[in-house]
Design brief:
Distance between the termini: 110 Å
Helix content: 25-40%
Number of domains: 2
Shape: rod-shaped
CATH architecture of the largest domain: 3-Layer(aba) Sandwich
Structural class: alpha/beta
Strand order of the largest sheet: 9-8-10-3-11-14-4-15
Strand content: 5-15%
Radius of gyration: 54 Å
Number of helices: 20
Number of strands: 16
CATH superfamily of the largest domain: Alkaline Phosphatase, subunit A
């Protein structure tokens, strides 16, 4: 205070002096800098505080003397005062230091207040009423007008904490589109939200479409392949066996427009199992059991070209595909077990490679090699497990009793008397549709009551081909009736006509648009109609009956057009393996998924049946 010249005020009465030491004092100086004596009396509040402290000190000293710890007056002043209390000069110096500190803080806060926004000060110091200051510092506080004005300013509502106090780097900035806010009425929609919702809808629609296009995951397929029968002779209105034409279709779904792919029972059976086209020998049911030579395999679809009947080990079929995938299969061929009585194997029964086919159906043994198509694949016939896979009916009855024993794919080939046809199999035996009925009346109920059928099973019944000679011959085809190279080479089938082309071109916008439309149409999956049926080149109209929990019982689907290649491709898709041979053609579709019920429907129905049977 004394060194700030702007604070000194001249005393008109002359300079005052200290009453204790005579040192000159300034007019506003309260304490002597030489001896520390105070000029004038202490303020009442300070005097009362010092008095209370003195009284307390005397009490402590008296208590200490009463205990005899020290002689009376020892360590105290001459009058028994408190030697531990600071002297008046020391007290004066402490008070002056506190006042100087207050002035310094006031000046600093005044500079901050003048340079900082008021909102920052509001965040640091909330509004409270200022406590009354002692007399001495009050004079010093008056020198900081900014702080005094702040104390007297009217109270204002405090701003938001994060509105201005935090720098930008403290609060992470988010893109506006990433913040979802509830949309108020009349407010413009959020583009991001709409985009997300649209994506979710598209994903859901795509999943629904994929589910609609998905074939059922069949765990056990029972493929019953009859012989030479037209659709009319088995399922038509003029069929002679009501069980075949009315009873069985009432249990499943019938596809009337289902066709063989070539002439010859064996050639169609091989096509159904492997997608391979016919040879001259397979169309004649292979009179000589010889390997196909030269056996050239096309690079694109693994189609074998040459003459003969037996395919090399490199040629795949649906049974070998299932083996590679770890699934089981068996071919059940009726009367095969009779071979032991005539010196032939009772399983995996086949002619000697390179020799004639000597198996002729006769009384007591209606087995025929060409009704056992799996032995025409060397990968099966020459394999170590052929006798395990290629068996007779004696194991069919056993396997159907146990779910684990029933293979994923059961190929069932009735004998000559039970596979139909127009010729008498043996004297007195039922023929044609009557012979088929005798077989299926026992076979179909046995399969339907098996544990494996109840667990995702499906029965498929078709014929290898329609009659190819006589009054009821039917060589028509559908859906893909190609010109087979092996038949062309043998002179049985004419070569395919080259695709028609035109040299005329047009650059008009209309023709360009039409061409683009045609390309889009070609890229779509093939859907065959009545116009897809050809008069020749196929195996005739034979029909397909499907019996399964996955199909609607009693339904006749006349708008579905398919053939053996279609069924092979569908079975391969159901079992999760790649298509083979002509089934690889994009022009060959699978069976329409719309023919089948969803897994959810089947499971719900099975649960309801189980609950009803439990109540009984």
């Amino acid at each position: 205070m004394a060194d700030r010249k702007d604070d000194h005020v001249p005393d008109p009465a002359g300079r005052a002096t200290c009453t204790e030491c005579g040192n000159p004092l300034a007019p506003d100086q309260r304490y002597c800098l030489n001896c520390g004596a105070r000029r004038g009396r202490l303020p009442g509040a300070v005097a009362s505080t010092l008095g209370a402290l003195g009284a307390k000190g005397k009490g402590i000293a008296a208590a200490a003397g009463a205990k005899g710890s020290k002689p009376k007056g020892d360590g105290d002043g001459e009058k028994g005062g408190w030697s531990w209390m600071p002297s008046p000069p020391a007290i004066a110096i402490a008070v002056i230091g506190m006042l100087a500190l207050g002035v310094g803080l006031g000046s600093a806060m005044s500079e901050v207040a003048s340079s900082a926004p008021i909102s920052t000060l509001i965040l640091e110091y909330p509004h409270h009423a200022a406590a009354p200051a002692p007399e001495e510092p009050k004079e010093e506080v008056e020198e900081a007008p900014e702080e005094e004005a702040f104390a007297e300013a009217p109270e204002e509502p405090a701003p938001e904490v994060f509105e201005e106090a935090l720098p930008e780097e403290v609060v992470p900035s988010l893109p506006e589109e990433a913040i979802e806010e509830p949309q108020a009425e009349g407010e413009e929609p959020n583009p991001l939200k709409e985009s997300i919702e649209a994506t979710e809808r598209e994903q859901k629609e795509r999943e629904e479409e994929e589910a609609a296009e998905k074939l059922p995951e069949i765990k056990h397929a029972f493929l019953i392949v009859l012989g030479e029968n037209s659709y009319e002779s088995t399922y038509g209105t003029t069929a002679e066996a009501p069980y075949l034409s009315r009873v069985l279709p009432g249990k499943g779904e019938l596809l009337p427009n289902y066709y063989g792919v070539t002439g010859g029972v064996l050639a169609n059976e091989i096509a159904l199992l492997s997608g391979q086209g016919p040879t001259a020998e397979t169309t004649a049911n292979c009179p000589n059991y010889t390997a196909i030579t030269p056996g050239t395999v096309s690079e694109t679809a693994e189609r074998v070209e040459g003459t003969g009947c037996v395919y090399g080990k490199e040629v795949k079929s649906l049974p070998t595909q299932l083996e590679e995938k770890g699934l089981t299969w068996r071919a059940y061929v009726e009367d095969m077990e009779n071979g032991g009585a005539i010196g032939q194997p009772f399983r995996c029964r086949k002619p000697t490679l390179g020799g004639p086919d000597g198996a002729t159906p006769g009384p007591g043994d209606q087995y025929a090699n060409w009704r056992n198509p799996v032995v025409y694949f060397s990968a099966i016939a020459e394999g170590e497990e052929c006798e395990k896979h290629d068996v007779g009916y004696e194991l069919l009855t056993h396997d159907l009793q146990f779910k684990k024993a029933t293979p994923a794919l059961s190929l069932i080939f009735p004998n000559a008397c039970h596979s139909g046809g127009e010729l008498e199999c043996e004297p007195g035996a039922p023929e044609g549709a009557q012979g088929i009925t005798e077989e299926l009346k026992t076979l179909v109920p046995a399969i339907m009551s098996s544990p494996a059928y109840e667990e995702g099973g499906m029965i498929l019944i078709t014929s290898a081909q329609a009659p190819q000679a006589g009054d009821n011959a039917d060589p028509s085809g559908c859906c893909l009736a190609p010109s087979y190279p092996n038949l062309v080479a043998a002179g049985i089938q004419p070569a395919a006509a080259p695709p028609t082309s035109t040299t005329e071109t047009s650059t008009s916008p209309t023709s360009t648009t039409e061409a683009a439309t045609e390309l889009e149409a070609e890229a779509e999956p093939a859907k065959y109609t009545e116009e897809s049926v050809l008069e020749t080149g196929g195996g005739g109209k034979v029909g397909l009956l499907m019996i399964s929990p996955y199909v609607e019982a009693g339904k006749v689907e006349e708008f579905e057009y398919a053939n053996h290649f279609t069924l092979l491709k569908s079975l391969e898709k159901m079992f999760g393996v790649e298509p083979l041979g002509y089934a690889t053609e994009e022009a060959v579709p699978i069976l329409s998924p719309s023919l089948f019920r969803s897994a959810e429907e089947v499971e719900t129905e099975a649960a309801e049946k189980k609950a009803k049977s439990a109540k009984r």
